[in-house]
Design a protein that fits this description.
D-amino Acid Aminotransferase, Chain A, domain 2; 9-stranded mixed beta sheet; single chain; 8-stranded antiparallel beta sheet; binds 4'-deoxy-4'-aminopyridoxal-5'-phosphate; alpha+beta; 2 domains; about 325 residues; D-amino Acid Aminotransferase, Chain A, domain 1
Length: about 325
């Protein structure tokens, strides 16, 4: 698929839709490959993010909370001693350039990945973080909203979320997602859409790739960071929008599985899932078994915000300007 887009110099050129930023340059996606000896492939020593860019109400495309995602990405990378080589601003600029180069104009998902690559000279083989080179790739693909507004059915997984003394749960580490994949696999095999994982104390941690909220007596309740969850950016967005726009406060307290079953409403938050109502947990309806009013109001608010329809949250949107409209190009990234 090709289309004409402006190049950084302002001229038009055919755009190859499938491109990646890989080892410091933009290459066709099929050339963004790694050898089988890649350390991260063998040991799960990579970190990643999932970021969405949304088509805006007034035209154009904007990355939603990209800086927050990249700050988390860099924190994750530090945990694994990965030197990404770019700061959050530079990563955001590379992302904008990638989106321009692929000619993205509709909703797009951005996947940055930083990983341990190969043993440096003198480093003996083995599981380790030091003495291993680092690498960065970013790819992006079109992905519209897949939120099921009618609600999803989730299982409580028999797989537990690892505690922070077992895995760095606050980091998005590739290897840790074995746990999430097993939980999703179990849930799907039993006919559910997704899984909620309890932590080692038997309290709710999070869903496979999203955070969990319950509505109890008109307030939101979501597990605290001590519940071994990933601190979701959408979780923060939901808390902020509920307080600002719906006058609904959030309690950060532990939730047991019975709390979820007795809640008036339950919903999940995540970059991919956005805000999605949970209408059934482990074969029992949540509330009336239909999306509740607070969840629905929050979903509506969220979708307005990500599309730039609500001016109060424009600071969360990084517009992907056409090349000619940019003040200047960042050196070394284009
Ligand atoms: N928990 C896990 C395990 C996830 O993978 C994600 C998705 N990044 C989330 C929660 C939600 O995080 P966010 O809202 O930042 O996408």
């Amino acid at each position: 698929m090709t289309s004409a887009v402006a190049t950084p110099t302002g001229a038009t050129a055919p755009a190859v839709a499938a491109l990646a930023y890989h080892d410091g340059e933009f290459v066709p996606l099929e050339q963004a490959r790694v050898p089988v000896t890649t350390q991260a492939l063998q040991y799960g020593t990579g970190v990643f993010e999932g970021i969405r860019a949304y088509a805006q109400a007034d035209g154009g495309l904007a990355v939603f909370r990209g800086r927050d995602h990249y700050l988390r990405f860099l924190r994750s990378a530090r945990t694994l001693r990965i030197d990404v080589g770019l700061d959050a601003e530079q990563l955001s600029e590379v992302t904008a350039e990638l989106l321009r180069r692929i000619g993205a104009s509709e909703d797009t998902y951005v996947r940055p990945l930083a990983y341990k690559r190969s043993l440096l000279p003198g480093t003996p083989p083995g599981v380790q973080l030091q003495g291993v080179s680092d690498a960065l790739s970013i790819n992006a693909f079109r992905m519209g909203s897949y939120t099921d507004r009618a609600g999803i059915r989730v299982a409580i997984s028999s797989w537990r979320r690892p505690e922070s003394g077992v895995l760095p749960v606050r980091a998005k580490v590739t290897g840790g997602y074995v746990n999430n994949a097993l939980a999703v696999d179990e849930a799907r095999a039993a006919g559910y859409d997704d899984a909620i994982l309890l932590n080692s104390r038997g309290q709710v941690a999070e869903a496979s790739t999203s955070n969990v909220f319950a509505v109890v007596r008109g307030r939101l309740v979501t597990p605290p960071l001590s519940a071994d969850l990933l601190e979701g950016i959408t979780r923060d967005t939901a808390v902020t929008l509920a307080a600002d726009l719906l006058d609904v406060g959030t309690d950060f307290t532990d939730l047991g599985r019975d709390d979820l079953c007795n809640a008036d409403e339950v919903f999940l938050t995540g970059t991919g899932a956005e805000i999605v109502p949970v209408t059934e947990i482990g074969g029992r309806p949540v509330g009336e078994g239909t999306p509740g009013p607070l969840t629905t109001a929050l979903m509506t608010a969220y979708h307005k915000v990500v599309r730039g329809d609500d001016q109060r949250y424009r600071h969360w949107l990084q517009p992907v300007r056409p090349a000619a409209a940019r003040p200047s190009a960042t050196g070394g990234t284009t």
